[in-house]
Amino acid sequence: xxxxxxxxxxxxxxxxxxxxxxxxxxxxxxxxxxxxxxxxxxxxxxxxxxxxxxxxxxxxxxxxxxxxxxxxxxxxxxxxxxxxxxxxxxxxxxxxxxxxxxxxxxxxxxxxxxxxxxxxxxxxxxxxxxxxxxxxxxxxxxxxxxxxxxxxxxxxxxxxxxxxxxxxxxxxxxxxxxxxxxxxxxxxxxxxxxxxxxxxxxxxxxxxxxxxxxxxxxxxxxxxxxxxxxxxxxxxxxxxxxxxxxxxxxxxxxxxxxxxxxxxxxxxxxxxxxxxxxxxxxxxxxxxxxxxxxxxxxxxxxxxxxxxxxxxxxxxxxxxxxxxxxxxxxxxxxxxxxxxxxxxxxxxxxxxxxxxxxxxxxxxxxxxxxxxxxxxxxxxxxxxxxxxxxxxxxxxxxxxxxxxxxxxxxxxxxxxxxxxxxxxxxxxxxxxxxxxxxxxxxxxxxxxxxxxxxxxxxxxxxxxxxx
Length: 467
Ligand SMILES: Cc1cc2nc3c(=O)[nH]c(=O)nc-3n(C[C@H](O)[C@H](O)[C@H](O)COP(=O)(O)OP(=O)(O)OC[C@H]3O[C@@H](n4cnc5c(N)ncnc54)[C@H](O)[C@@H]3O)c2cc1C
Description:
With about 475 residues, the chain is α+β, with helices and mostly antiparallel strands. The protein is about 30% helix and about 20% strand.
């Protein structure tokens, strides 16, 4: 079903204009961070607005415990700003963390407090300005252009007037406020569940690893969940404890369990999810202490500031990337990134199953620039998990390395459009691709050439993690 919010067009003449940057980025998650850095590095006066007091989005606010793979199983395909930030975090997190992760590009654990500081520093060093504790809640329209963005914070309400607008809210808030059509969830409105992630201390990694070795890896771990569910010590639902990310030998992050029926664009649902999520963590801590070797003495130190949200809106863009493109590993003339992450759609309720489809090792598909261009708006671009795709592709594109890559492309395009004095559709896409490659991004060996040589595989597979 296609949805559309009534666009706001009236300008409240009483509101003061607080900022007039070339480029404003709303949302300081993976896509917004990369977008702001890329726009600023390419010469645009850039403002990054974030509702919280730190950057990182789901990776910090929701304590998502690890970065999904940067590689296609053979080589890094997410490079550029995303890879830079990953390596900076590894270095900044100290010697022990570095030596644990120095050769890893896939499933690197997130050291959340270090990452927040790395993001602050790298965004500021790029030349972009940051405005925290600020929510964007209205857009002002003039024809097909956004002429202003109304923001709200402790200083009051005011208008940001930029030339170009980047929506990196994860929920396509700006696009929806501007009246861009969007879709949400599956055919019956079903959405992937949320997860309240958390950090524990007092764990014993050596003991846990030994348990996996002695009992046959993840099967035994899954069996502990099944047994606890049978005994009533865990609710029904997700069987797998995926995403245990070891930050040190004793501190681990968890992405475990689901809260169902949450729409991340509704405050009431987010409230219920926060409360139910924290209750579920208490149950899981008891389970881990009782059933899983290595976690007998754990102590909960922190849960997400909000429930982790996997999907909300997907905008209607100039092109909608669909599962057939994914499965045939299609390339496009206007590719701005490559994606190899598997299609990872979590169960919509406790009795359904997860959908998994994956590409062969060393293979990827292209992500076209047009997926980020919302229909009917000339100076707005959307980056991150809400770009124009069908639901299966969203289940793959949504992960943080991809969001960095899309963000870098959106920010670079914004700087080019600002310099040229036009909108996002007027820039030279080949010029954008050239600049992305010069600045470290990887767009495939032969951009624009379709790789139909090997079919993708679907079904149930053994994979290291799910997110
Ligand atoms: C439980 C869970 C586990 C996951 N596991 C992994 C994993 O292991 N590895 C991985 O790579 N990915 C994982 N993902 C996916 C990934 O974390 C997200 O899809 C990704 O962070 C999306 O990035 P984004 O920049 O599009 O949006 P977000 O990370 O959601 O960032 C959006 C930002 O915009 C801000 N914002 C939103 N609206 C406004 C507004 N109106 N005004 C001001 N600010 C606003 C938010 O505060 C937030 O900081 C997981 C997701 C979940 C929920």
